[in-house]
Amino acid sequence: MGAELDRLTLALDSAAAQGVVVITGAGVSLASGIPTFRGTDPGAVWARDVTELGTLAYFRRDPLGSWRWYLERFSQVLRARPNPAHHALAALERWHAGGGGELLLVSQNIDTLHEAAGSQRLVKVHGSVDRVRCCRDGCTLGAPAGSLARDQAGLERFAAAPLAENLPRCPRCDSLLRPHVLWFDEYYQGHDDYQIERVLAAADAAALLLFVGTSFSVGVTDLLLRAAWRRRTPVLAIDPVAASSHPPGVELLCAAAEGLLPAAVQCLAGR
Q1: Given CA atoms 89, 149, 203, 19 in this order, what sign does their dihedral have?
Q2: What Rg do the C-alpha atoms of the chain give, in angstroms?
Q3: pTM higher than 0.85 for the full model?
Q4: CA-CA-CA-CA torsion for 91, 28, 127, 191, nearest 10 degrees?
Q5: Tell me: the pLDDT tens digits for 226-249?
Q6: Could you count the other beta carbons within 10 Å of the beta carbon of residue 6?
Q7: How far, in Å, CA of 108 to CA of 245, rounded?
Q8: Residue 242, C-beta contacts closer than 8 angstroms, at least 6 positions apart
Q9: Buried-most residue among 18, 89, 147, 201 (CB within 10 A)?
Q10: How wide is the angle at C-alpha 49 spanned by C-alphas 167 and 25, nearest 5°?
Q11: Catalytic residues, which ones?
């Protein structure tokens, strides 16, 4: 990990007074017990049915089945706790602010581990597991700006008896509630909480892009890479697997994030 640590600390130190965008994917939460979608870990589920079931079309066709699948798939996410990588990114945000720069953390994950670890400048471009929203656009609790806390949705009744009559409904208009997440057949502009314009603006101004635990298979990673290529911004990626699928122009740091990131923060703090 020596060479990877030296390269990461040099890159972060060089951008200390400038803008840095960190983009995290499912790999950053693997050490917290949350399986990835496309990774090589035994729990990865990308090869199964997520692209069919994780869609608005499926929710409209079978809301009962959609909610059953969602609760089964993501119940463990709410029980997870931050790992050293999450805590290191929160510490890196504080260190970067102390140097006069701005670090924006952009997560593709819907878990709440970054905020639990203390990250403040955070955008969750795919939504959040701890919130739901009305499926009717224009409702004050629906798109483009509304949502409500998951614990206000009455999901306990549905979980206890997953029947059509127990499907969670909007307390404002009685339409069905849906998870507050970006499904595979939806767009980043579909809800204000995804903050895609803020993300792209930060990437355009950044002196460094750092990807952590992502397979570069989701739309936002392509958008950010294009911004980096356009401005010739350095791009690093932390990944424990030296895969050949990383895009051109991305410098791979082959290490586990939960080991490399805390070590880098410790080195930076000692300078």
Answers
A1: negative
A2: 19
A3: yes
A4: 80
A5: 999 999 999 999 998 765 567 888
A6: 12
A7: 19
A8: 252, 254
A9: 89
A10: 95
A11: 126
